[in-house]
Each structure stands twice: as structure tokens, then as C-alpha cells.
UniProtKB/TrEMBL annotation:
Pfam families: Glyco_hyd_65N_2, Glyco_hydro_95_C, Glyco_hydro_95_cat
TM stretches of this protein: none
GO biological process, alphabetically ordered: carbohydrate metabolic process
One function term, GO molecular function aspect: alpha-L-fucosidase activity
Protein name per UniProt: Uncharacterized protein
Alpha fucosidase A-like C-terminal domain span: 694-753
InterPro entries on file: 6-hairpin_glycosidase_sf (IPR008928), AFCA-like_C (IPR049053), Alpha-L-fucosidase (IPR016518), GH95_cat (IPR054363), GH95_N_dom (IPR027414), Glyco_hydro_b (IPR013780)
Domain named Glycosyl hydrolase family 95 catalytic: residues: 287-692
Domain Glycosyl hydrolase family 95 N-terminal: residue ranges: 25-264
Length: 755
């Protein structure tokens, strides 16, 4: 084995020759979720690649129904007192019933909304008359390409979303002059949308829906505008009703933007028209080549920071759909698995960047007015799993979107902590919207009564510091960390029998248990995941306060509470318990596995530090079963990687690809390929990383869970905690070369199997 240590300014000694990173198809998308996603982190679209008529749905992440509102129940502290009275009497039925009263008003979050659709029709173009059709998403450049032949002319389309210019750019060309005859127009599902044309620009403005049968929609305060500028090279343009027509052009470039009046969770003072106009005006000063080069200069270095080669492609000539079909029939395709890894990274860059908000349940790729889960941010696993691969796969800039999101969440969450619980600090529950509703939502305490999500999000934000121990970043997140700790200082209650400091009300996300009278209930005391998350929060706070040399007394208090949290409990089956007491699960095979949080994303339970607890986790996993695909199965890949069980991890990965695969998902996939698709894909990306390299427990482990299917390979640009970059090459399943690059003057501890 060859080990090399170098500074990050030195030239790489390992260069990975990875396969082309693209999805490719020989037909246009027939259904919405077969389209290809692009995005600037804020403004995005889905590209179907149609020949007959292209309809491109586009969205802005901040477009929601309603406006700023306060959902908190002012009677909350009295309700909490009553819940605790029932809970300490082991009256779980009444504790659960009482918890319904904590739900916010309105009971559910507002709706994320689609903005509009850009329609394009090329005169005389029909798929039936075309030949040689292809469409692809090149992840190396974040460009969608559409090509076909018609009447001896080759037509090409390039589409990309530019983060620097915050516009979507569409370029139509032909290999013969004067062959492009294009009509373009806007449509929208928003009833209030009004369209106009000024010179060579199409403009659409509106508000959001104001009512929906059976739902509480707050009066619309959100205003939006979209605009597309059509620039022809050669030919002429004209207006026909609501359409902008281009005739006999050599090439056409369309520059599209959208904006809203949203500023923050409690501020809608922006001028959406000025915002949108500015995007178009600034982008229009650049030529197409300048727009393209600016986009590539921004995107390509970020995506290229991590490269991977897991093995050859059995047949590089076939389409993505054909590769998916082969995988579903049992074939192994290491090159496809590498593409899938990179697709998770692509989605992160398309869906969340600096100065944007975090992923929500559809991100920018929503296509209807009442998207599933209202398009909300779900905070009890979904958003967190999307961010799992960000640090380890070298996309640290994406963390900024989560930080901006949590800064808004904490401001709103301070109001909920005070009004609902009578506590200092801040908290959040399981779902939120762009108005940052931090109260329990959707009524049912099985999922709604879960004030742990703020602390969980702090684990993700603090992890960024562990990967890049920059004290300036730590100073920025410290008030958020401190506020979350202050909440639990006040929220925890002492059990008079055991002396444990317990959460109450407490639930295990979306699961329930059976009480001794056969009732299905949800609310209890000190659920396992609560204790695990608080333990992580307090440890991180103690470390941060010591690094920053502040809040000594508060740090001492955190150390005392750490000693009073309940330890991990092992139940009658030998399983790691989900609740403080060994309750019978209402659904043994439930999709959520929050009682195993201490394994991943935390590292409180590891195979070397706590082997007896690992056995209990294995029992819990076996009892859970593995029928749940999608995000739940992706989480399991990470568990088995942490347990250094490569074949189990790979089996789940292969089944995931067969069930979910790329975008689009197979028609009979058991998940909806929207946010759950994003989440599953990015969870898999994190899992593949954990199979190749781990950096928890103060050591860097190389190839800890390498499956036999990846016999030969290489990876460049993985990141390890402590401020290290990792490059590796392996052959016949054994590490042959590794380069550790240090960003700081620090030593590291390595673990690797003897070749």
C-alpha cells in the first residue's frame, strides 16, 4: 500500500478517469417525472425534451400560498402541563388526546405553488417525422441536450440554469440557416396569472390561490412575476395574441427568470417585478456564449471536486432506461452506480446553493397546485437526509442553504418556544413552510408533536464545522446552537422516580405503540431518539463553548444534564428500544428508524466503541424488516456501511436502483419520485460514500465496506472530518494507493485493512 500526505495546494497524484456522467434517452418524456430537472438553487424547471410542443414547468422556491402568520396556540403551556400530568401517571391515552390541542392554527402549513409553464412550438415539428432523437442530462456541465433530425436538418436544444445569473437559458439551433420557426408563450395553473408581451419579452404576473375546498388557505400576500426574453439570430419576430413568433431564424436564445416578493419568514417587502426585470436585464447584456461560459465556470469546479470510478460500464451505448431495466433483472452495473452517486451531488447543486433556501418536499420541481404533503419542508428525516452527502462528497458550499433556512427557522421557532411551551431558546416541529411555521402541524401527535427537529438540524450544521474546523463558521452557528440548548434546559422535566431528565410530550416520529389495555397511542416520556439527539446537541454545545471560550456556566449545566439523560435501553427481544419503556410497537416494520439515530447520522453507537449496543441495533433492524424502499432503505445502507457489512449495504443499494433508480423512476416504483426521490437518491450517495470512506470517531477509515462488485476502482475528492481530502485507488478489493490532503496543520488517525 502507498500512502501519501500532502497539502491541498500540491498537485494531485491520483486522477480518476470516471465514465461520462449523464442520463440519456432516445424518446421524449411522456410523463412529468420522466423530465430532466435543472435549477439555480432558487429557480428551477423540468425539461421533457418534446419535439411536437415543449412545455417547461418552472418554479421559484419561495412561491407559497398565504403570508406571514402566527400558528401558535396561546394555551400551549397549560396543555403541556396537562400532558405531563397524564404521562407521569402512565396514562398514555389521555396524554395523546391532550397533545392534539397543541396543533397550530391553521392546523396545516400553507401550499408550495408552481409558477408557470413556458410553451415552445417549432412549426411543422412532429416526433413521428423525426429520426435520431436523443435527450440527455450531462451532469458534468449541468446541461440538458435535445437533438433530432427532421427533413434533413439537425435540430439541437441546450438548456441550463445559471446560478450566477439566476436565469434559465434555452438555445435552439439548426445546422442549416433560416430553419427555426418558433412560437413561445406562457401559461400558468395560477388563476390570477396575467400575460403580456412587450417588445421581444413575454411577461406573466400574479398571486397565489386563495381557496381550496376543505382546506384553510390564508389570504394571498405573495406576488410573483416571470419573464422570458426571446433573442433571434437572423429572421424576424412578431406578436400573435399572447404568443411571440420567430420566423426563419438561424438560432434562438431564450432567457427566462422568475421572482417573488418574499424576503424572510416575516417579510414580503421585495419588489418582485424589479427583481425579475433585473435578472433579465443583466443576463441580456451577455451573449449566449458568455452566459454559457459563466455558468460552466461556476458549476464545473464544484461538481468536479469529487470524482468516482467503481468499474466499467457493461454496455455504454445503451440508454439510461435500458440500463435501469437490466438492473431490475438483476444485472450489476458499477458505472451506473457511480452515475447514481454523482446524480445525488448534481441534485444538491441544482436544488440548493448559497443564498437559497433548503430542499423542500418538491424542491423547485412541483407541477400542481396541491402537491403531496403540500410541498412542505418535512423536518423529521426528509430534509436532513438530503444534506447527508454534502460534506463528505465535497459540496460544502451547499451547507449555506441549510444555514440560511435554519436562521429563519430559529427566529420563528423562538416564538413557538415561548408561546407554546413557555421556554427560552427556539424549537421546531415536523413540518414547515416559507412562513416558517414551527408549531405542531397536521393535528395528529403521531407526527405533529415532535419539537426535536431544530436540535437535529443543528447536528447537520455542526457537522460542517467538524469537516472544516473554521472558528468563524462556529461563531456564526453558535447562537443557533445555544438557543436550541436553552430550549431543552427549560423543556426537559425530571422524573421523580428515576431522576432522569426527560422530554415530555415525546414521540418517536410517525410511529405509535400499544399500551397495556390494547390502545394505540403515541405520546410518552423520553423516547429513545429524543435522548440521542439531545445528547449530541449538548456534546456539540460543550465543545463549541470551549473552543470559543464562552458560556462556561451554561457548559457546566450541559455537562450535568448529559449525566441525567436516560442511557440506551435494550428490550425484551434484545433490540434497542424505541421508547424509554419496552412498549409493543403498533407497526413493527415502520419506515422510520429514529431509535437508531445514534448509529447514523450520529456516531454514539459504533462497532468498536459499543459492540453490545450494535447487537441490539442489529436485532432492531431485523425486526423492522426491509420492505420499505426509498429514503428508508437508503438510511439502511448507511447503517450497514457503519457496521462494515459491504454485501448487505450493496444488496440494499442494488434493490434501491431497481426500485427507484434515476430520474425518472420505474413506473411501478414504490416511492413518488419527487422529494422522496431526491431524498432517496441523496441518501444513497451518502451511503456509497460511507462504504468507501468514513471519518467518525476521530479516525479516517478507508474502504470500510467495499463490496465484491467494486473490485477495482478509484475516488478523488472525498472529504473527511478534521479538514482532510481523500483520494484512493484499489485493485482486486485491496487499497493500493491513498493520498490524504490536509487543509489544516493537523494529524489524523487512519484505519485500513492490510492489503
Amino acid at each position: 500500500i502507498c500512502l501519501a500526505f500532502q497539502s491541498c495546494t500540491e498537485k494531485n497524484v491520483i486522477v480518476v478517469n470516471q465514465v461520462p456522467i449523464n442520463w440519456k434517452y432516445d424518446v421524449p418524456a411522456k410523463k412529468y417525472w420522466e423530465s430532466l430537472p435543472i435549477g439555480t438553487g432558487r429557480f428551477g424547471a423540468m425539461i421533457p425534451g418534446s419535439v411536437d410542443q415543449e412545455v417547461i414547468p418552472f418554479n421559484d422556491e419561495t412561491l407559497w400560498t398565504g403570508g406571514p402568520y402566527n400558528p401558535n396556540n396561546p394555551e400551549g403551556p397549560k396543555v403541556v402541563e396537562k400532558i405531563r400530568e397524564y404521562a407521569f401517571a402512565n396514562d398514555w391515552v389521555n396524554a395523546t388526546k391532550e397533545a392534539w390541542k397543541l396543533s397550530g392554527k391553521p392546523q396545516s402549513v400553507q401550499y408550495y405553488q408552481p409558477m408557470g409553464r413556458l410553451n415552445m412550438r417549432l412549426e411543422g415539428h412532429e416526433l413521428a417525422k423525426a429520426s435520431g432523437y436523443s435527450r440527455s442530462l450531462n451532469m458534468d456541465s449541468a446541461i440538458v441536450n435535445v437533438d433530432y433530425l427532421l427533413d434533413g436538418v439537425k435540430y439541437s436544444r441546450k438548456i441550463f440554469a445559471s446560478y450566477p445569473d439566476q436565469v434559465i437559458v434555452i438555445r435552439l439551433t439548426a445546422d442549416q440557416k433560416g430553419k427555426i420557426n418558433l412560437s413561445s408563450w406562457f401559461t400558468s395553473l395560477q388563476p390570477s396569472a396575467v400575460t403580456s408581451i412587450e417588445n421581444n419579452e413575454i411577461i406573466m404576473r400574479g398571486t397565489t390561490i386563495s381557496e381550496k375546498p376543505g382546506e384553510v388557505i390564508l389570504p394571498p400576500q405573495m406576488k410573483w412575476q416571470s419573464k422570458v426574453k426571446v433573442i433571434s439570430e437572423g429572421g424576424s419576430w412578431s406578436v400573435d395574441s399572447d404568443k411571440l413568433m420567430v420566423a426563419n431564424a438561424d438560432a434562438v436564445t431564450l432567457i427566462m427568470a422568475g421572482a417573488t416578493n418574499w424576503v424572510a419568514w416575516n417579510d414580503i417587502s421585495a419588489n418582485e417585478k424589479q427583481r425579475c426585470d433585473d435578472y433579465i436585464t443583466k443576463a441580456s447584456t451577455l451573449t449566449y456564449d458568455e452566459l454559457l461560459n459563466k455558468h460552466l465556470a461556476d458549476y464545473c469546479p464544484l461538481f468536479a471536486a469529487c470524482r468516482i470510478d467503481l468499474g466499467p460500464d457493461p454496455d455504454p451505448s445503451i440508454t439510461t432506461t435500458q440500463s435501469m431495466e437490466a438492473i431490475r433483472k438483476g444485472a450489476s452495473n458499477p458505472a451506473y452506480e457511480a452515475r447514481y452517486f454523482q446524480y445525488g451531488r448534481y441534485l444538491m447543486l441544482a436544488g440548493a446553493r448559497e443564498n437559497t433556501l433548503a430542499f423542500n418536499n418538491h424542491n423547485m420541481w412541483l407541477n400542481d397546485l396541491d402537491g403531496r404533503w403540500r410541498g412542505r419542508w418535512t423536518l423529521n428525516i426528509n430534509i436532513q437526509e438530503c444534506y447527508w452527502p454534502v460534506e463528505s462528497t465535497n459540496l460544502p458550499n451547499v451547507n449555506e442553504s441549510l444555514l440560511l433556512f435554519v436562521e429563519n427557522l430559529a427566529e420563528a421557532g423562538a416564538r413557538t418556544a415561548k408561546e407554546l411551551f413557555g421556554c427560552r431558546g427556539w424549537c421546531a416541529h415536523h413540518g414547515t413552510d416559507v412562513w416558517f411555521n414551527t408549531a405542531p402541524t397536521d393535528g395528529n401527535p403521531h407526527w405533529g408533536t415532535y419539537p426535536m427537529t431544530g436540535a437535529w438540524l443543528m447536528q447537520q450544521l455542526y457537522d460542517h464545522y467538524l469537516y472544516d474546523p473554521n472558528p468563524e463558521y462556529l461563531r456564526r452557528i453558535y447562537p443557533l446552537l445555544k438557543g436550541s440548548v436553552e430550549f431543552f434546559f427549560d423543556f426537559l422535566v425530571k422524573d421523580p422516580v428515576t431522576g432522569y431528565m426527560l422530554t415530555c410530550p415525546s414521540t418517536s416520529p410517525e410511529n405509535s405503540f400499544i399500551d397495556d389495555k390494547g390502545n394505540e397511542v403515541a405520546v410518552s416520556l423520553g423516547a429513545a431518539s429524543d435522548n440521542q439527539i439531545i445528547r449530541n446537541l449538548l456534546r456539540n454545545f460543550i465543545a463549541a463553548s470551549e473552543v470559543l471560550n464562552t458560556d462556561t456556566e451554561m457548559g457546566d449545566r450541559a455537562k450535568e444534564i448529559l449525566k441525567q439523560l436516560p442511557p440506551h435501553q435494550i428490550g425484551s427481544f434484545g433490540q434497542l428500544q424505541e421508547w424509554l419503556y419496552d412498549f409493543k410497537e403498533a407497526e413493527v416494520t415502520h419506515r422510520h428508524m429514529m431509535h437508531l439515530w445514534a448509529v447514523y447520522p450520529d456516531d454514539d453507537i459504533t462497532i468498536r466503541k459499543t459492540p453490545e449496543l450494535v447487537e441490539a441495533v442489529q436485532v432492531a433492524l431485523k425486526r423492522r424488516g426491509d420492505k420499505n424502499m426509498g429514503w428508508s432503505s437508503a438510511w439502511r445502507i448507511n447503517f450497514h456501511a457503519r457496521f462494515e457489512e459491504p454485501e448487505k449495504a450493496y444488496d440494499l443499494l442494488h434493490r434501491m436502483l431497481a426500485d427507484v433508480s434515476g430520474w425518472p423512476a420505474p413506473e411501478d416504483s414504490r416511492i413518488t419520485p419527487s422529494f422522496e426521490g431526491n431524498q432517496a437518491i441523496q441518501g444513497v450517495t451518502a451511503g456509497i460514500t460511507e462504504m468507501l470512506m468514513q471519518s467518525h470517531s476521530s479516525e479516517i477509515s478507508l474502504l470500510p465496506a467495499l463490496p465484491s462488485q467494486w473490485k477495482n476502482g478509484a475516488v478523488e475528492g472525498l472529504r473527511a472530518r478534521g479538514g482532510f481530502d481523500i483520494d484512493m485507488v484499489w485493485n482486486e478489493g485491496a487499497l493500493t494507493k491513498a493520498v490524504i490532503k490536509a487543509h489544516y496543520n493537523k494529524s489524523c488517525r487512519l484505519r485500513t485493512k492490510i492489503p
